[in-house]
Amino acid sequence: MPGDGGHPGDGGHPGDGGHPGDGGRAGDGGRTKDGGTRAPRSGRTGRVRDDGGHPGHGGHPGHGGHPGHGGHGFHAGHSADGGIRAPRSGRTGRTGRARAGARPRGRGVRAATAALVLCAAVTGCGGGANADGSGGKAVLRFSWWGNPDRAERTERAVELFEKRHPGVEVQTSFAGYETYKQKLATQAAGGDAPDVMQLDYRQINQYATAGVLLDLGARDAVRTGGIDKGLLATGAVDGTQYAVPLGRGTQAVVYDTGAWRASGVELPRADWTWEEWGAAMAELSAADIPAGGEGGAGGTRVGGLDPGQSEDAFEMWLRGQGKALYTRDGKLGFTEDDLTRWWAWCDGLRKRGAVSEARQTTQLDGSVENTPLGRQQAVSDINWDAPASGYEAILGGPGSTALAPMPTGEDGTPGQYFKPSMFAGVSAATAHPEEAAALIDFIVNDPDAVEILGAGRGLPVNDRLRERLEPELTGFDRVIAAHHRSLEDRLKPPPPAPPKGDNALQTTFQRDYDQVSFGRKTPREAAAEFITEAKAELRP
Amino acid sequence: MSITTRTPARPARLRDGPRAPGGRAKRRPRREREGAAWVFLSPWVLGAAVLTLLPMAVSLYLSFTDYDMFEPPSFVGLRNYTQMFTEDPRYWRSVTTTLLYVVIAVPLQLALALAVALALKSVRRGKGFYRSAFYAPSLLGASMSIALVWRALFNDGGTVDDLLSRAGLDIGGWVNQPGWALLAVALLTVWQFGAPMVIFLAGLQQIPTELYEAASVDGAGRWRQFVSVTLPMLSPVLFFNLVLQTIQAFQVFTPAFAVSGGRGGPADSTLFYTLYLYDRGFTASHMGYASAMAWVLLLAVAAVTAVLFRTSRSWVFYAAEEDR
Q1: B284: closest CA of chain A, how far (Å)
Q2: What family does the Swiss-Prot or TrEMBL record give for this protein (chain B) (predicted)?
């Protein structure tokens, strides 16, 4: 173990309790019950985790009676499991001893001591909540975003990982994407990023260049041989493999099969264009399919979701015309005119009633339930394939939901692409790089893990395992696999990772289109505003 | 403390004071006493210094930098401020939205608080119960859960929306319509009128009954009494509530965040200043810009408060001054 000064017997031991200052320095390893030494963690986190302040450690009976240091929560304590708790800092220890000598000074000092004990109690409790309980294992924190279904599958996979690696404990946490994004950024800024973190395509650049991520290419523990080269490259920044894709996803026109069939409108063809899509939406709206679900009393369904708010849909539309959202050097790849045309076209569709009204569209919050299709106010939707599994439960079980390819450009140029649905990266500050890398390798390359995870994060990236898994897929995973098969070899390679400002622009895009759909701005005005904001955001 | 050290400017006071000049000698040295005072103050002083003053100083520094939380802040001078005032249309939308909200919510809330306080004043039985009942929303109000319930009530197909559409007013979800969403947030604030109400109630009980008796002898009706006795006598309390609620209204965050789905939508109609600040800082990772916004907000609220204090001279009536 590197640099562990916290040898048992050095400090804080009942035998020499009067010299707390001798104890292992803060951040040093502590000995635990089974003889394993806990590795020091670099930076602030390590200290907070490894040393005391845990209720029950500070004022241990072994010390209790010694005036001057007995009650100090932050002094070395001898924990019940035989582990040594390092004092918070050497200085604290010295102060303690000096104070012991100055005892007779009287009431003021005693009051000071009392006050300090109080402070120690307060600060100590703050960090020590999960200081123990690991039983000497390497503790990995793994956080991701996703829905309960993904959480359930992940928990099962993690359990299996822990069984295979008895020396490792994985603490998991997950949240919705928006929340996750904000929390992760704050953690990373504080030098406290989780050991293993799930990352989006839009985050890779920022996190890699800021030095938050570990170079995974240098770790043999993560085997990437089974992953398609083009897909793998999406996790590299300037030639360094900072993250590994966890799944492959692509967009789709999701539709309610029952409603679409009932309308009598021709089902989507594999090579339909945006114009054909728009026409189909209008026909579907004209078919007067009754709306379902709550809050839909009476009305009829529209054809589909207004795609104007979606930066993703706009990107696919652009690519269908041979353009791109960003240039190779991270500048805007389109003009105000392009965006004006897109928004004017969407605006027209909405005004004709072909796609969802503004008040429907504005309720989008990333969950399937709050899309127009999820509320059964529309016949179709545009979404990513993995989350689309959520529609099935709403629309009436297996077979109720189908996926069609995204529309292409007028000359048949496909706009959609296979995107890494998400990545896994390892914190540069992790104390357990090997274990962290092993966890990622397990998720990507272990046949059992891949089977448990299914298509919950998109289709598996390991080609061999994906092919083996495909016949065994059940439920909506099967639909997703078929969707991918129908697109295989037809799509263009994915664009490089978006520049870091893009993270915020996705929301800006939606907001600016809100101004159009609520009739507060013309498409041209809104497009001009977006371009201004985008340029400010992408400024180096 | 200061009285003992200062040269006695008002000898009369000092002589009447509780402590004779000779008493000083018996006490322990002043330094030690001060030391003990500091020790007892230390939890608070440390807290204020480390958790309030230090972060404030840091945020002031950050407001002159470009800081994305990942790379170290780089100094950009006043660029955040100039960008805010000259290049950012959404900033001004957030300013007007917040002002509109303050102008709607605060007077409505105070009016309701005063009305309920007046009604409760004459209640004889179960006063405590009513007071608690009306105060309860204020206790709950700041919580996220209430804000979420509020969103559900006013959403498309929510209870309020449903009732209104049955009555023939189909809005289609207040929180989804730019013209209505702000009102939904304002109503949530108005509903939490408990704190000002309790203060009004206390203020009302301070008004001497002789004034009302004298007024009714003079033939003043209830309205006349309210305008000529209650309002002037209550004006200090009214002023206090006005200042407090205005400051709070400028800083509204939780209800706005929840009711607008976290984005200030629809179409930026509930893009409150604090919400936009949060958006810049945590969603777009422009901590420098967000810090600059925070400091402008602080100064703006201070300025508004100062203006309120200035106007108060012309309408707030302090009985004590009258006596002199």
Answers
A1: 5
A2: Belongs to the binding-protein-dependent transport system permease family.
